[in-house]
Amino acid sequence: MKFNYKKYRNLIFSALAVAASAAMIKYSMTQIDDAVYVSASQSDDNSQIIVLDSGHGGMDGGCSTADGIPEKGINLSIMLSLRDMCRLYGYDVVCTRESDVSIYDSGVTGIRNQKISDMENRLELFNRYPDAVCLSIHQNNYTDPKYSGAQMFYSGANSESERFAAIIQSAFVQNLQPDNTRETKLCGDELYLCYYCDNPAVMAECGFLSNPDEAAKLTDESYQQSVAFTLFTGINTFLNERK
Q1: Cα(240)–Cα(226) distance, rounded to whole angstroms?
Q2: DSSP 70
Q3: Cβ(208)–Cβ(140) below 8 Å
Q4: How far is residue 67 from each of residues 141, 146, 209, 228, measured CA to CA in Å?
Q5: 149 backbone φψ class: left, alpha, beta (φ>0; ψ -120 to 50)
Q6: What is the mean pLDDT of each successive set of 10 residues along the chain, which is 243 residues long?
Q7: Which domains does the chain have, with CATH numbers?
Q8: What would the DSSP string read from start to end of 11-38?
Q9: What is the spatial distance between Cα 19 and Cα 181, in angstroms, rounded to a whole number?
Q10: pTM, rounded to two decimals
Q11: What is the pLDDT of residue 23?
């Protein structure tokens, strides 16, 4: 018998919230994939597609903590937890990567060309599904270690992106960072993925790896799961308001 996820959405959301507050969100991947997840090709025409991007990967580590822990692994851990939550709730999820890889085209040589190809392929996935919502997960870095807190970036390419960013920013304040006073920011073309995305898109800088206290949190698996749940609540709120 096919699992009716829509019937149990509220119950699932409540269960996720309880688990997140205890920082103990753990899943059985096999159970989720077999009982809940319906792929985009198999789902009904009204299914909502969410495209998730885990920033960097492969030869591109991104920024790093003072201890040398690269951003790419933190992004991936958060994204995989978020992916599972979204699938458990019944959303269709497409990921730009699900392991430590760069998705440049085969045969492309040279680091610069590989990075360009990687970003073009990520953007193609962001724009492949009409009316999808897109989120790119990153960590921030600055020369002064005093700065901390999540911040959302959006582009003007889609009129819904600003509201999407504001909702996720608010979720961070409510769930994890009550003292966070950062404002969402309009990005330029330096944030290639968001800037050229046709769908509602946000780049989530979840915190500063240059801040020792925040870096310690962001490298902790339980906190990463809490960040994932915060992103999930933001996505879910945005989609519910969008209906």
Answers
A1: 21
A2: B
A3: yes
A4: 14, 17, 10, 23
A5: left
A6: 51 57 40 36 63 97 96 98 97 98 96 96 96 97 97 96 98 97 96 97 98 98 98 97 84
A7: 9-242 (3.40.630.40)
A8: HHHHHHHHHHHTT-----HHHHHHHT--
A9: 27
A10: 0.84
A11: 42
